[in-house]
Amino acid sequence: MGETMELAFPVIDLSKINGDERQSTMDMIKDACENWGFFEVPSQIYYVCFRSIKFVIMLLKLNCVSTFVSVFVKLMNHGISHELMDTVEKHTKEHYKKCMEQRFKEMVASKGLDQLAQSEIDDLDWESTFFVRHLPESNINEIPDLGDDYRVVMKEFAVELEKLAEKLLELLCDNLGLEQGYLKNVFNGSKGPTFGTKVSNYPPCPKPDLIKGLRAHTDAGGIILLFQDDKVSGLQLLKDGNWIDVPPMKHSIVVNLGDQLEVITNGKYKSVMHRVIAQTDGTRMSIASFYNPGSDAVIYPAPVLVDGEAEVYPKFVFEDYMKLYAGLKFDAKEPRFEAMKGMEANVNSGAIAII
């Protein structure tokens, strides 16, 4: 399915949202959502070096400290500190080495994957994973083998990612002409959104041409925030029939849109097929966090985006879509949407939030 190509992957500087370049930045986000389904938010912090303590004292006397701190924060693109990201990465890689690497090797041996023949394997992925639920209720304390320090930083990281996801949803509302809060309110349902993190490691693979790190798929949910390894690559997206590498960048967050946003936007924004190519050298870390609708949220095209256009997507309860997705994840999304049309009559219209 397509060749691998190199194109200019969209990288967006969120620090420009509140300045003179807001409109051009919003246009970049719009283009990325309409034509890519992905974009990357780097984290660039500009450090100021004070050569003299007298200069600091002068700032204090001039009451400039609060101004300086405000400027410093605005120069952080996605708002998540490097220190926190480095700590999450450190604990994630240590946990894999200590608790999961040997299990993965045993799984590979048990399935005979260490002696791959010449035929491609299309029903397994070359990955080691575990999943953490954050909302509506966290299960992080129930996951075995996680150290206390790891649990603490993952909770802190999840809080920051939740803020970023909700900020991005507001920006999407602006670009789509939706009322502020529309997407968040649709996601909420009656119990609030669901939010969780898939922690993955992709170990070195002896024959990456015969097995994928993760098979091609679109994501079922809402907005996905990925903190990926900056040294070992592998993530690709499908654009115009060609596979495009998603460049690893240190301290960046890769954003992609799930099926639910395609439905709500009536197809203006698209979820996009993506995959992970296994590598022969190095273990690739991937921490993907999914900010999704609540289980009972009713998903349907926003009326303002249907006005004058055909409504081509169904109305359904998110939990029903997830049940269908579980068995069809690696298939095309269109048959899933068609299957949900047959369930529209079962949707209780009284549960739809009027926004």
**What is the spatial order of strands in the main beta sheet?**
2-9-6-11-4-3
What is the subunit arrangement here? single chain
- In N-to-C order, the SSE pattern is EHEHHHEHHEEEEEEHEEEHEHH
Specify the biggest β-sheet.
6 strands, antiparallel
Low-confidence stretches: 45-76, 349-355
How much helicity do the residues have? 25-40%
How much strand? 15-25%
Rg (CA only):
22 Å
The span between the termini is 41 Å
Apparent shape: globular
Average pLDDT number: 86
Tally the helices: 10
The total beta strand count reads 13
Structural class: alpha+beta
Q: Which features would summarize this protein structure in a list?
A:
single chain; 355 residues; alpha+beta; five-stranded mixed β-sheet; 10 helices
Please characterize this protein's 3D structure.
- With 355 residues, the chain is of the alpha+beta class.
- The chain has 10 helices and 13 strands.
- It has helices at 22-35, 53-61, 65-74, 82-110, 148-176, 182-188, 259-264, 303-306, 318-328, 333-341, and strands spanning 4-5, 38-41, 128-135, 194-202, 214-217, 223-228, 235-239, 242-245, 253-257, 274-276, 284-292, 298-299, 316-317.
- The strands form 3 sheets. A 6-stranded antiparallel beta sheet has the order 2-9-6-11-4-3. Strands 1-8-7-10-5 form a 5-stranded mixed beta sheet, with no helix packed on it.
- A hairpin with a 2-residue loop joins β7 (235-239) and β8.
- α1 crosses α5 and α4 crosses α5.
- The longest helix has 29 residues, at 82-110.
- It is globular.
- Residues 193-293 form the Fe2OG dioxygenase domain.
- InterPro entries: IPNS-like_FE2OG_OXY (IPR044861), IPNS-like_sf (IPR027443), Oxoglu/Fe-dep_dioxygenase_dom (IPR005123), Plant_2OG-oxidoreductases (IPR050295).
- Belongs to the iron/ascorbate-dependent oxidoreductase family.
